[in-house]
Amino acid sequence: MQTFSRRRFVRASALIAASCAAPGGVPSFAEPSQAAGKPSPIRLGLASYTFRNFSRAQMIGSMKQLNVTALNCKDVKDHLPMDATEEAKALADYSAAGITPHAAGAIYFPKDEDADIRAKFDYCKRAGISVIVAGDPTPETLPRVERFVKEYDIRIAIHNHGPEDKVWPSPLDVLKLVKNLDPRIGCCIDVGHTVRAGTDVVQAIHEIGPRLFNMHMKDLTDFHSKESQVAVGDGVMPIREIFEALIKTNYKGFVDLEYEVHGDDPMPGVIASFAYMRGVLSGMGYRA
Description:
Blueprint: H1 4-21, E1 38-39, E2 43-47, H2 56-66, E3 70-73, H3 84-96, E4 100-107, H4 114-126, E5 131-134, H5 142-152, E6 155-159, H6 171-178, E7 185-190, H7 191-196, H8 201-208, E8 212-217, E9 219-220, E10 229-230, H9 239-248, E11 254-257, H10 267-283, E12 286-287
Helix pairs in contact: 1-10, 4-5, 8-9
């Protein structure tokens, strides 16, 4: 596991690189490194829940500052409304800003009914989204959900929610119940909830393999405390080891930052998180 001294070094290196890369020498701490190296196999994105207290226009402005163009959308504020007309407006705004919604969620499936499930698949189909991050489908609902996965060719990534979740605390619990279903039904690993459930997140990545469709990235200072979330790099999450496992398992999805603290002022932590993750990737020899 990474030490705090190593983390401070990585973050400092990332901030220096970002400052040097900025136009006119003006620091832009979230800029991707332009240093020589291989293109990164890890694709970084943003979970829109991070900006749950901010409008779509405000979030787009922040994403431009962050130099992030991949978005995991949620129907919160006006980020990606369920209403078809309002959804179209949001998609037009994202397209104009060069932002691509690649996943949506968490989306909840409280009813084992065709109409409710179809409405959510239609919502994602209109947006061109290929992965639904599902918050709470029950095991009994999965056969019905599987029918819609086959009909729409949209993947379902069941999101684990830690020890408070009595059905899906760990991604390994997801795997047990989906491993014999259509291969487009799999997992969204939330790394914070995973470690709080007592699961080794690196091992889980290897076990889940091709059924891993999305990642929610965060950091904790205490693997037993949900309230200990900090900017990525300030905690004890094994970030480099996570990236190495994703590369080794040929993961093709996104690693989406979900920064759930400081909801009214997330940008300092978000900037630091992207700088740290890009610094780790740079240290691995990749252009991030």
